[in-house]
Amino acid sequence: MTDYRGQHPAWCPGCGNYSILKAFKDAMIRLNMEPHQLVIVSGIGQAGKFPHYVRCNTFNGLHGRTLPVATGIRLANHEMPVMAFAGDGDCYGEGGNHLIHAIRRNINVKLFVHDNQIYGLTKGQASPTSMEGIKTKNQPFGVFSEQLNPMALAVALDCSFVARGFAGETEHLTWLIEEAVKHKGFSLLDILQPCVTFNKVNTYEWYKQRVYHIELEYNPEDRTSAFNKALEWGERIPVGIIYQNHRMILEERIPIIRKAPLVRQSVDLLKLEDTLREFI
Amino acid sequence: MDYSIKIGGEAGQGIQTIGDTLAKVFARSGYHVFTHQDYESRIRGGHNFYQIRLSENHITASKERIDIIVALDRESIVQHEKELTERGLIIYDSSVLRQNYREPHFMEVPFENIAVKSGGKIMANIVAVGAVLGMLGIDLTILHEIIKDAFNKKGEEVVMGNINASKAGHDYALTNCQRCSFSARNVHKTPLLPLMLISGNEALGLGAISAGLKFYSAYPMTPSTGIMNYIADKEAEYGIIVEQAEDEIAAINMALGASFAGVRAMTGTSGGGFALMVEGLSLAGMTETPVVIALAQRPGPATGFPTRTEQADLQFALYTAHGEFPRIVFAPGTPEQAFFLANKAFDLAEKYQIPVIIMTDQYLADSQWTLERIDLNSIRYTDYRLRGEGFKNLAAYKRHAFTQSGVTPLGIPGDAKHLVVTDSDEHNEEGHIVEDAATRINMLDKRLFKKLPLIKQEIDPPVLYGNNNPEIVLVGWGSTYGVLKEVVDMFPAKRAAMLHFSEICPFPTTDKFDYIKMLDNASLAVCIENNATGQLARLIRAETGFEFKHKINKFDGRPFMVSNLLGDLTACIDRL
Description:
The structure holds 2 protein chains of 2 kinds.
Chain A: H1 17-30, E1 39-42, E2 57-60, H2 66-76, E3 82-87, H3 88-94, H4 96-105, E4 109-115, H5 150-156, E5 161-166, H6 170-182, E6 187-192, H7 204-210, E7 211-213, H8 223-231, E8 237-244, H9 250-253, H10 272-277
Chain B: E1 2-11, H1 15-28, E2 32-38, E3 45-55, E4 66-71, H2 74-80, E5 84-92, H3 94-97, E6 106-108, H4 111-118, H5 124-136, H6 141-151, H7 156-176, E7 196-199, H8 200-210, E8 213-218, H9 225-233, H10 235-238, E9 241-244, H11 248-261, E10 264-269, H12 271-287, E11 291-297, H13 314-319, E12 328-330, H14 335-352, E13 355-361, H15 362-366, E14 368-371, E15 385-386, H16 388-392, E16 410-411, E17 421-423, H17 437-458, E18 463-466, E19 472-477, H18 481-490, E20 496-501, E21 503-505, H19 515-521, E22 524-529, H20 535-544, E23 550-553, H21 562-574
Parallel strand pairs in B: 1-4, 4-5, 5-6, 8-9, 8-10, 10-11, 11-13, 12-13, 15-16, 19-20, 19-22, 22-23
Antiparallel strand pairs in B: 1-3, 2-3, 2-14, 7-14, 12-21, 18-20
Helix pairs in contact in B: 1-5, 4-5, 4-7, 5-7, 6-7, 8-9, 8-14, 11-12, 18-21
């Protein structure tokens, strides 16, 4: 555990992010992964600070752009586990287009979304997952737009692994993180995470009353029932693995990296003479 | 011998096939060739043309006057008839154009009819190629080699059909071209040696490959797409991943991710896409991640003229992106420069861990030049990364540690137990977020002030061509190289010279070559640019204090042509 001890977090006391941090470290230890063996890519927002508190290889990039950076890293070195940490604003707002295309590519990146249904770092504006009608400083008449449902979006796109966790249930969340990492394929784990400072509606209490564990007999490989499960929101909110499939990952489709990762391949400039002759 | 040929027609009629085939025959025959293309932003229809110039001497630009026009549509005649030289001829197929032209400078060649007799209508274009070669008196041996190379996979029948079609076109021209006074037959005793024929986009792509490129991510955008096409064609052979990104923001961020993971990475786009990449450019600056960006310009603002040419993004490339960090901007003027500057761009990007922008434009991207050779002994390849055992054996590692030169060795994440941490936030030596003023100052000192003088030393001065002590100096950058060079040669008594900037940022010092003194001493110094406001002229004034009294600017989306530019210059001289 001390191997994973990073900088002292700059999160508010009581923030849901602390349990995500603990669950992540526990999962890494259970998976026997050492910090130098993985890369975490993050963006901007409170979730963006995550890798600094973990002590691992880190690329803390721009707001919304975690997935393109993570994709580039994986394509250059597909032997390295690559994880992306983003908030709901980062991943579902600013970087929504990248989410769609990362799911389509099925790059073997693990995406963990700290979903608190509000903008924390910019101090309390609506996020794509804020519920319709919620009033904020910038939405004084309440949010007009329909709440984004990341689970339904992901199932609709045939995302390889779709799950939801809750920061109030660390043990369950640890298990979900482990499953997401073990799964081969693009994994989206949306983590409900109360913002104790700016979200006065979706509190620990609010989630605790609604969250339930997906039934043991549920089959996450059936896409149609997964879509129904993904649509559940309101009085009851399912947490667990909503959907998974075993599509081929992008890295396996690229013939160039079948034998070795790109970063381990030597540069061969001897062929250049032959290439020049092609212009005659 | 110096002939120009223009093939005009609608998009989809095969202008490119005729043009490329002729250009290849000429280059392989040992003639110097220059081609350029003018096309509209559409897949079918409209009017497009492909222009080829061939000569026994070095040529570097297109001419206005045309000797042979291959008219595949009526518009070719409407627009280009006036460009014909006195000996010039227009060949056309009346069954396609549905019109007959009786004047002596027209020659009917029934392309389709001849093709049908040789094996199929589809071969009409090869009939046209054969006819042009017949008019020029060039035999078909080399064309037949090219046909075999291109169609061998399709079987003997296709090869023979095309050979017969070309012969029929050739014979038709020999028999019917009463006015043909062209002769491209080799009058030299020694045979001419075959030359390479390469476009700006291909040369840039190959230059990147020569630098060990491993990852190219881009969103297609004219006129940069040719770079991606060329590199994708070489993907398997050189072990390169080409990823088509969902947008230009993703393209540059993917390239940065790949570079962080340890491979040489590049992206390419045009102005609009580059605008989207700007935040990523700043990210490269902050995280000290090497990346090369090809910026193939086209006329703006906004969508502008999507398929045409302009040099209006210089100031944009120099100053865009928030914050202060070093960058390099190159602007090659020829395919050879594109090759070597792409090679140098990767070397410097990795050596100093900075973004390097290579600027071209549609004119250079799509035009083809002949070259005797590219000297591979002059390419650079040094791996500056900290990898494998070398990284493992280090006692400690900090990604952004302060050093004498400002450059911290770039470790490959995962190669050692040492962590590689970087951040778009201001960070400490380890790469973690900080807020304190002292670290901020030290980091700017490292990233900017320490590296900049070293980078400046890597920049070569502008190229001087012509008189060493010129009365008249033509100043330009990027794709105007070829036309300026030819105009210099046309000035009587060798009074003129060209000063061409291809390494623009950091701006070249006068230490190695005092070009400002040369400009001061000249009786006429003219800055010639394919833009409206004279962006290089403004830059030279800002950097050196030299102010141009004369500028020639062209911003109609078309490239400069030799005699028009000479005319503008003569008018300039007359006003002195």
